[in-house]
User: Which sequence fits this backbone?
């Protein structure tokens, strides 16, 4: 029975991918892949760590992923780069790379590890995550599916494990890979704080059409104009912004504030409009989470969005205290309904991720009742653990639900093809 379920599910995924792939050349893949690797100092390491990597070295790493640097902004604590496809952040002991489109992000790993080894830095931990692609058939190895990605990552990191979060009846899933931290002799400078750290990621689709048009150059000829028109400059008023506008449309932004960053990427085309927002380094001391999320939603007015919130060290005393702050108490934004929730503990180090999906209500009135506690009260069975040698699959009843989704997708694609022909 297990093999039969695996075959049916696999066939169905291929059908969806092939159907979407038929029109993939007309659309840009907005959903990003995100890679975060932390390192540890060695006996001969310089304090600057990865920030001492030359521009030539960064270019070589990004060439492997098939993207380039288009703008740069630094703080005293890290360097940020806007890329041709998303963003790069370089700390002394940490690198975060986000790439969209058909980039091959994971192929940058060998170059990054080589550069780190040359600085006497060793890997401490690795985290990789992404949503579900609009156009999965357009992706090349190792990004054709999550199992391939997990196997590829396991070739470089020990003890890694993959998870898929999200409702079994939803086409949108959140894929997470974590290779646990390795303790080091010389002090890693990361993960040792008594205070928890937070990373917020929002993925928004079905953007309001009036908002989306602001990210076309024939409407706003400059990135600064797009930033102001959408209200992006008001999200985190204390941050410095580095923004970039693409031809004929599209937008990217990094902001820096001390050791914290935020980043936004927008694909405004109708039919597959997408915007992402991420912050790392902010927490309850800097801003109320619901205030921040509401500001982002006012900028883009999505019909659907997901929210993934990561906390490191949330299991300790300080973590429990902050877990009860605005970054730990659940809420549903006004005008939206929560349509899915998942929670997953990531190893034994006290790291937790919660993942929620929201759909805009037809009549934007009062908000739905909030969840009491995101860190302990969110139901967990929706998180599915992935072993690269044996992927846990949905039940046959879930597959029937996906069959309905596949039919709807094919009908949508058929309408798009007819519209293009007309």
Assistant:
């Amino acid at each position: 029975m297990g093999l039969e379920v695996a075959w049916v599910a696999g066939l169905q995924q291929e059908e969806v991918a092939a159907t979407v792939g038929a029109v993939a050349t007309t659309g840009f893949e907005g959903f990003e892949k995100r890679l975060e690797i932390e390192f540890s100092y060695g006996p001969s390491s310089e304090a600057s760590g990865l920030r001492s990597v030359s521009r030539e070295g960064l270019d070589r790493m990004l060439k492997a992923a098939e993207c380039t640097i288009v703008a740069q902004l630094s703080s005293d604590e890290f360097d940020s780069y806007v890329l041709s496809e998303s963003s790069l952040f370089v700390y002394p002991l940490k690198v975060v790379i986000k790439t969209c489109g058909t980039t091959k992000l994971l192929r940058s790993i060998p170059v990054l590890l080589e550069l780190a080894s040359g600085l006497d830095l060793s890997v401490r931990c690795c985290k990789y995550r992404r949503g579900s692609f609009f156009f999965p058939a357009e992706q090349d190895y190792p990004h054709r599916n999550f199992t391939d990605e997990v196997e590829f990552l396991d070739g470089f990191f020990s003890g890694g494990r993959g998870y898929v979060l999200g409702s079994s009846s939803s086409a949108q899933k959140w894929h997470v890979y974590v290779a646990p931290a390795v303790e080091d002799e010389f002090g890693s400078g990361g993960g040792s704080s008594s205070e928890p750290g937070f990373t917020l990621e929002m993925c928004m689709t079905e953007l309001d059409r009036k908002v989306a048009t602001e990210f076309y150059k024939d409407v706003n000829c400059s990135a600064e104009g797009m930033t102001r028109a959408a209200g992006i400059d008001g999200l985190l008023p204390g941050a410095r912004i580095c923004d970039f506008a693409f031809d004929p449309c599209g937008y990217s932004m990094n902001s820096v504030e001390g050791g914290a960053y935020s980043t936004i990427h927008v694909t405004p085309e109708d039919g597959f409009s997408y915007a992402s927002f991420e912050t790392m380094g902010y927490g309850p001391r800097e801003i109320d989470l619901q205030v921040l999320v509401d500001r982002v939603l006012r900028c883009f007015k999505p019909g659907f969005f997901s929210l993934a919130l990561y906390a490191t060290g949330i299991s300790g005393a300080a973590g429990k205290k902050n877990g009860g702050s605005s970054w730990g108490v659940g809420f549903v934004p006004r005008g939206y309904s929560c349509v899915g929730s998942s929670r997953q503990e990531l190893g034994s180090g006290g790291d937790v991720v919660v993942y929620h999906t929201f759909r805009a209500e037809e009549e934007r009135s009062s908000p739905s009742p909030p969840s009491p506690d995101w860190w302990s009260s969110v139901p967990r069975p929706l998180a599915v653990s992935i072993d690269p040698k044996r992927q846990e699959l949905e039940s046959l009843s879930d597959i029937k639900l996906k069959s309905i989704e596949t039919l709807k997708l094919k009908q949508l694609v058929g309408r798009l093809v007819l519209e293009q022909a007309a």
The chain has a mean pLDDT of 79. The chain has one domain: 26-391. The first strand starts at residue 33 and ends at 41. The two ends are 46 Å apart (CA to CA).
